[in-house]
Amino acid sequence: MTLHTPTTEPEACQVVADAAGRRTPLTLQGGGTKTDLGRPAQAEANLSSAGLTGVTLYEPAELVIGARAGTPLREVVATLAERGQELSFEPMDHRVLLGTTGEPTIGAVAAGNISGPRRILSGAARDSLIGVRFVNGRAEAIKSGGRVMKNVTGLDLVKLMAGSWGTLGFLTEVTFKVQPRPERIATLSLPGLSDARAVEALCTAAASPFEVTGAAHLPGERTLIRIEGFSTAIDYRLGQLRRVLKGFGTPDVIEGEAAADLWRGIRDGAPLAEPRDRAVWRISTAPTMGPGLVEAIAGALDARWYYDWSGGLIWLSTPATGDAGAAAIRAAVARAGGHATLIRAPMEVRAAVDVFQPLSEPLMRVSMGIKASLDPAGVFNPGRMHAGV
């Protein structure tokens, strides 16, 4: 497969122009850490953002950072850390689950709308994404958004590109709002709760006024509630949360690197990383529906799981044979409401089942219309999310 690694936006435009003229499909990628996520590539050449690197804008006082799409995520994180700041949405590192190498890039974070446990308070990556530059399928360089959050009339290309997984355009630069790093982080740990009681505890904590930034349950182990902020405020909020949660047991408090490692594992899917021969699903639903949804799936499949986002995000592993449990999982999700994405599975399984949540007929028509508008020759990541798109 031919590899194109442009170092400037005009070079990227030329690559896309040539591909569109020849109707040569392109696989888009950043650091290659998520190449095995989605339906198998249906392309003849690879367009990489690896040559588009560097922070292009950083205004700490305005809490804004911009970088070229191929910039390693760790570089952005380190730049922010020097000024006591961070990305608010705590992006996941897929290398843990997928067993890939390379470096996650800031452009891929935007393209995949990659978020972590703090989403329950701070929102997803798309909620912090305020500007993009990208090359569309007509080989035009497009700029949308800027340095500040603003109301948008019409088609919001910034939000549209987030979560499109490279099917609508080749990102060349992204701009995010950021936030100050907290002075202190503390986690309450409750042992011995069932799934249903754990989700009740998590929802109780999340509904309190004490700004929970992480709410996860590891079945058979513990239920975790995280808060962040100034040290003196943390002491007060810990006391108040203990009071709110007194009906669920007496929690321990975990801080420091032990707690950080715990939340990194939850963020990155570590509890389900092994054994490697199992498929892994990411299921979103209403938090209160989570335990019942899992019970329905576990009644039909050999399943393992844990919960994030107060029970609204379920990480679940199944045998990677047959359809990897797709029929049972999608039936359960249809009854409970929500959507399911197959994050890890062998190529033959990903080619045979819907990896992303199937779209209704009206939504598919809208998606195909947007695709045709931005990528009329259909050269960008064809079929990665849905067959024919």
Question: Would you kindly provide a written description of the structure presented here, covering whatever features stand out?
Answer:
This is Glycolate oxidase subunit GlcE. InterPro entries: FAD-bd_PCMH, FAD-bd_PCMH-like_sf, FAD-bd_PCMH_sub2, FAD-linked_Oxase-like_C, Oxid_FAD_bind_N. It comes from Salinarimonas soli. The strands form five sheets. The chain has a five-stranded antiparallel beta sheet with strand order 4-5-9-7-8. A four-stranded antiparallel beta sheet has the order 12-13-11-14, with helices on both faces. The protein is 33% helix and 25% strand. The chain is globular. The model has no long low-confidence stretch (mean pLDDT 95). α11 (290-298) runs antiparallel to α12 (326-336). The chain has helices at residues 9-22, 73-82, 95-98, 106-112, 119-122, 125-128, 157-161, 195-206, 231-244, 256-268, 290-298, 326-336, 347-352, 361-374, and strands at 2-4, 26-29, 45-48, 55-59, 64-68, 85-86, 129-135, 141-145, 170-177, 179-180, 184-191, 212-218, 222-229, 252-255, 278-284, 304-308, 313-319, 339-344. The chain is an alpha+beta fold and 389 residues long. The longest helix has 14 residues, at 9-22. The protein has three domains: 1-181 and 359-389, Uridine Diphospho-n-acetylenolpyruvylglucosamine Reductase, domain 3; 184-268, BMC (bacterial microcompartment) domain (Alpha-Beta Plaits, 2-Layer Sandwich), CATH 3.30.70.1710; 270-352, Alpha-Beta Plaits.
